[in-house]
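Late entry, evening session. Most of the bench is empty. Finally got around to the prediction I had been postponing all week. Sequence below, unchanged from the version circulated by S.P.
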Amino acid sequence: MLIVLPSTPTTENASQWLNERSIPHQVIPIPESLGYKTGSDVAIYIEGSDQQGVPMELTKARFVVMRVFKDFKL
């Protein structure tokens, strides 16, 4: 799953928030092949289907989630 937030600093803050909760993830460059443009150069990548609730948790923590690509795989 790829989670896109509005800016690079916001993505970095969300990554720190996920780290504090021991939620495994990676911050990766947004692939140009997605054809999706935003103010951020990076997105949060989460592997596996056991983390499907992460976008909702980020939203509850007041992070703006721009887009979620559920079927995205590295």
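Two things to note before I forget:
Helices lie at 8-20, 54-60.
The chain has two helices and four strands.
Will write this up properly tomorrow.
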